[in-house]
Amino acid sequence: MKVLESKFANGFLRMCTDGWEQGWHECNGGNLSYRSKPEELESVREDLAEGGEWREIGARVPGLGGEAFLVTGSGKFFRNAALCPEENVGVVRVDPAGERYQICWGLQGGARPTSELPSHLMNHEVKKRVSGGKHRVIYHAHTPNVIALTFVLPLEDGVFTRELWEMATECPVVFPDGVGVVGWMVPGGRAIAVETSRRMERYDVAIWAHHGTFCSGEDFDQAFGLMHTVEKSAEILVKVMSMAPRKRQTITPENFRELARAFRVTLPEKFLYPKEE
Ligand code: 2HA
Ligand code: ZN
Questions:
Q1: Do the Cβ atoms of 92 and 104 come closer than 8 Å?
Q2: Of the CATH numbers 3.40.50.720, 3.90.1520.10, 3.40.225.10, 3.30.390.30, which one belongs to the domain with range 144-277?
Q3: What average pLDDT does this structure show over 43-65?
Q4: Where in the sequence numbering do the catalytic residues fall?
């Protein structure tokens, strides 16, 4: 079968369109990658090219040696992904050492994989290990309300986690481990990839100050749903902070403990510290 007939490519393209429609992907903002399953790759083998040039990833990911990924292209617009997939997205294979990649499909016209390939692949390497191979999707979006909060909240994992949890009752059920925060850094290289992948050891969400959000998930629904939940929670917080300097009432640490019992999730006690509101 052709790559564009496959379920995974269609799920990927649908997610690009969904993200664009949310307003998270101005110009070439944001990027998406999917670690394909061996049987998925096998099903589209007839459509994959062999012998492409090997290029440096810009990071070392030995845990991903031999894996193949569907990725968005550098400088490409999410808005165009589903309209012309061959030019805007591509399949890349990682060499056995995890140092170089080769384009096997798409990215036509000399396009390259996303400028955030080091962050995507380092995140995939961590998530593959800590999830026992279950996580396959890494998604980066320019989420406006999360970005706005990085100008006014302290850039601390605990503060962002607790404030976002408080904004909607089901947030702690969707991201019980919390969120990590990375201070401002130059995007597109190894240094920000190292910092982000450190957060991914513990969390499924990493916020880049004054830039956007990275999410990891087992599939497209999970990764998109997580991004959507975090950004919606941030939107509520922006509204609350805009209406009043202090919350009149909120979800309390004891409420969170009750919720954790009812929904059978573990919420780290370090995020349930007493606060003066
Ligand atoms: O332009 O989002 O972080 C793509 C990006 C870089
Ligand atoms: Zn970005």
A1: yes
A2: 3.40.225.10
A3: 97
A4: 116
